[in-house]
Each structure stands twice: as C-alpha cells, then as structure tokens.
Amino acid sequence: MGRNRKKRILENIEITDIADKGKAVGRHEGRVVFVSDAVPGDNVDVLIQKTRKGNLIGKAIKLNTPSADRIKPVCKHFGVCGGCKWQHLGYAAQLKYKEQTVVNAFQRIAKVPVGEYLPIVPADHTEYYRNKLEFSFSNKRWLTEEEVNSGTAFDQRNALGFHRPGAFDKIVDVEHCWLQPDPSNAIRNAVRAFALENDLEFFDIREQTGLLRQLFVRVSSIGEVMVLVSFYQNNEEQIAALLNHLKDQFPEISSLMYVINGKKNDTIYDLPIKEWSGKPYLVEKLRDVSFKVGPKSFFQTNTAQAVKLYDTILEFAELKGTENVYDLYTGIGSIACYVAAHCKTIVGIEEVAPAIDDARINVALNDIKNATFYAGDVKDILDDAFIAKHGTPDLVITDPPRVGMHKNVVQSLLQLNAPKIVYVSCNPASQARDIDLLSAQYDVIKVQPVDMFPHTHHIESVALLIVKE
C-alpha cells in the first residue's frame, strides 16, 4: 500500500464496513479511515481531508475495484446535492448495514441482553417515497466540477433545489428528484421557469435580498397536493402572478399558500401562513385513520412505511382493549390516533403546542372519544399529579426526538414502573443509551428495525421492554 504524502492520498484502501452516519470504513496502518463516496467491498484511493481523534477522514477519489454491492445511481444529481447518499449501494446491502447499525447500538451502547433481533422491515418503494420536500432558491447555483473546469462564464446562476453540503449559500439546481412522486417535479420546474421568464429575483442568503426563498411541496397518499411558497419580500404583484400561475397550471393543487419570511433564518413555524386557494390543509390516511396535515404539521414523511411502523407498535403492544396507554412525544397524535381503537384510554404529551392543536383536530376528525392530549415538556408534565389524574399506564409508548429522552423522563418511567414500554426511535444510539438506564427494571424482549428512508443511513428502531418480575 502506497501513500502520496504531499497530497495526503492513501492508495488501495479496502472498504470493509459502514460507520455511524453512513460513512464507509477502511484502515491504514492501524488507523481507522472514514470515507465518503465509497461502499463496503470497494478498493479505493482516498484523499485525506482531516484527522479527528486519531482517525482519518477523507473521500474516495479513485475506484480501483468496485464492490459486488455497488450499483449505478438512478439520479443525475447523485453525489452533488448531498441527498440519497447510499444510492450507489444495492438495497439488499443497505438493509443489511442498517440492521447491523441497530444491533451494534444495543451491543456497544446499551450492553444489555436482547431477546430477539427481528429482521428489518424493508420499504416497498425505494424511490418516490417521501410525502414532503423543501426546496430552496438561490442566485448562486452550485457549479459542478466539470462546469468549473470548463472555463465557461456562467452569467445566469439562479437555482431551485437543495443546499450543497458544506456550502450554505449554494443551491444545487435539481431537474428531477427521485424522492417525491408527481406532480412534485413538475411543480418545482414550473416555478423555476416562471421565475426566470418573469425576472423574479432569487434569494441571496449572504446579502439577504431577493423575492423567492423556499418552496414546500406535500403530496398525500389519497392524491391531495399542498404547495407553500416562502417569499423574502412582500411584492404583492409578483407574488400574485406566481401563485395564480401555479393555480392555473396545476388544478390538482388542493392547498396553495404562501408566507413572508424576512428573517435571517428559514424557519416558518413562528410566521403566519396566508391562504391563496383551496383548503388550509391536506388529508392523509394511515389505513382507516385520517389526518388533517397543515403547512406546519409534523407527519411521518414516508406514508407507506409509517403504516408498517405503526403496525409494529400495535404488534408489540398486544392490546386487548382494556389498557390505559401513555403516548409520550405524541406530535400531532398520529400514533395515539392509530392505537386508540385498540385500548381503553390513551393520553398524549407533546412539547410543541401547535402539534397538540393538530392532535385534537385529528381525534375529532376520526370521532375518537378516548384520547386526551397535553401540551408541554414531557419531563415537566409527567409528574405525580398527572399520574394520579390519569392512572398508572398498562403501556407506555415513547417516540422521542433524535436526542432521545431527557434523563428526568427516564427516571420518571422507572418510578412509573409500567408493565410494558414500546420505545420508538429514529436514532438507535440514543435509544440504546436510554434503554441502558431503563434496564435496571426492564428486559428488552425484542427489537424491530424499520427502513423509513431508503438510500440513506437513517433507520427507525422499535424496542419492546417488559418490567422485570
């Protein structure tokens, strides 16, 4: 094995595994090398970009021998936009490494016995599976390496697409995205074309100027479409022109809205949404349960896999219809609504108050009478008075954010001593950390990985915990 010290290039690195956050892993002279743009089984030359905690971090610059699991990406923007980072890895291999990620988290972090590791639940669709995407406008289009090397001067640099990783002010102009079904691509391309033809100004994040800032597209499994355009400036004439164009060109848009965001950050959750045409929400369905999803609502972005995820929760819960259930970090009450018909009562807690507003709307929509919701931090609400009012639960379902549960919540669960916990997580590492703490009183019966996001390293994990006898 050779090395060019001047350019810090390591030659003939054998890629043997996948690490946290999807980086490929090799070794050089006893040191771990984390490599982007490679998959296990590849032999690559690696440009080292930095060293961290004694490990080397770099990117593959030459593929010497391809892995048997390597495939051709379907997307022309692969490797540039930063999304779908595993699109060059066959789906069967993706599932294998995701499954191993969950096992590793429990074995290395929780270090507790697991009764059974169930096989990962795959996605039926590996393309066009997302129901929501956010696109950004920029007057600084990211230029590809070929464009830069061509020597051509690109006067028109407006773009509508995704942020280029590591370049906050640059946007990759996306022609076709394989993540969201029709009419997502057609809407995005129509917005760009209209803006260019009518000299609408694209946002400049550095200078904080321009009209067009973001484009949000939601599509539901029953065919409804929501479009929200975020404008930096309140130019009423230009806003009306664009929105009327969308309304005329896409009659299938059931909810057309806009927002004026003159802040320095992109978040719109603290801003008033203005309706242009159609309803202020779209309807999504998970089996027989319907949900009103607004422009600010959090909802599982893979509808088909959400059904499989929630079915797994029900399977683990083994409800008989007589149980009292707590649903922690309930969001818009999607799990609570899905479970309500199978238990006696269910109580949801969520820190984001607007999400609880959505939850109450959704229980009314489905004529659910046995669900109650509270807005507030779980660690503050789940106290003795709350338990005295709602009774000790037969089951706790917890689905916290990526950071996991606050240590006070874990302590509350230990004091609560519910017979059964179903822990749902989008981060097996924080899930394993929390379960390590819970293992003082609970046994881990089984763990089920569910693939919600094909072509990425992200994985959902469901664990069943039973109180020790």
Describe the structure.
- The chain is built from 11 helices and 24 strands.
- By secondary structure, it is α/β, with parallel strands linked by helices.
- The strands form 4 sheets. Strands 8-23-24-22-21-18-19-20 form an 8-stranded mixed beta sheet, sandwiched between helices. Strands 1-2-6-7-5-4-3 form a 7-stranded mixed beta sheet, with no helix packed on it. A 7-stranded mixed beta sheet has the order 11-10-9-12-13-14-15.
- Strand 19 (345-350), helix 7 and strand 20 (371-375) form a beta-alpha-beta unit.
- Helix 1 packs parallel to helix 11 (428-438).
- The mean pLDDT is 95.
Give a quick account of the main beta sheet: strands, pairing sense, barrel closure.
8 strands, mixed
Q: How much of the polypeptide forms β-strand, as a percent range?
A: 25-35%
Quickly give the structural class: alpha/beta
Number of strands: 24
Mean pLDDT score, rounded?
A: 95
The geometry reads as: globular
Q: Output the radius of gyration.
A: 24 Å
Widest sheet, order of strands: 8-23-24-22-21-18-19-20
Range of helix content? 25-40%
Unreliable runs, pLDDT <50, ≥5 residues? Answer: none
Number of helices: 11
End-to-end Cα distance, whole Å, is 56 Å
